[in-house]
Amino acid sequence: MDKFARPLAEMREVQLTLGGRRVLEQVDLAVRGNEIVTLVGPNGAGKSTLVRVLLGLIKPDEGSVWLQPGLRVGYMPQRLSVDPVLPLTVSRFLTLGRRCSESQVRQVLQEVGAAELLPAQVQSVSGGELQRILLARALLRDPQLLILDEPVQGVDVAGQADLYRLIGHIRERLHCGILMVSHDLHLVMATTDRVVCLNRHICCSGSPEDVRGDPAYLALFGSAPELAVYTHHHDHRHQLDGHVVAVDGGGKGGDPRG
Fewest beta carbons less than 10 Å away: which of 57, 78, 206, 211? Predict the structure, then answer.
């Protein structure tokens, strides 16, 4: 039996009402190991709420939520607010509430391309840098399931493509399951195995190619050219601050982190 055949996490027929409004209706969802599942939908569709239900932060009114016993989950929230007067270095932030060696912290920051931020104050970093720091914190759990809620929020287009490629590399290294919430369809479609389209209920799901032609998907998002799969190659890469750096051997396609 394929070790990835059984879900790491699963919800069945989940229903939830908040403030008198039905937020989730008869939702079924499963995430398996070595799989990237991307949850898309319009604002107010219930995407972040679904994530909180799966994490056990909100109890559904009906239905069931199951996580593999002992499952290690890494969670990257949609946003983080830190009091500007609170002195908090990146190193300290990454170790809050957990025991990690300095070498582990350095290694995970290196993996996400932010090693130089170790001594920086969290309040001083840019939006793209903060997203990498949040991803690094999630990775410190050595997760079997990685949940990413809008991982490229506040990041420019070049940085978004870079982060999505990084997420793909993480899946390849850890063979973990990844549930990702996103609205950046033109980039996500090229970096996911399965798309689930949510608008309080599951409108459609399947491979990116299947979902893009589904009438339910088209009714929500239309068929504008910018929703096509986005791929490109270039002979430079972008630093965290957005500066362009030439890559040696650019004729071979450049740095894979683009």
Answer: 57
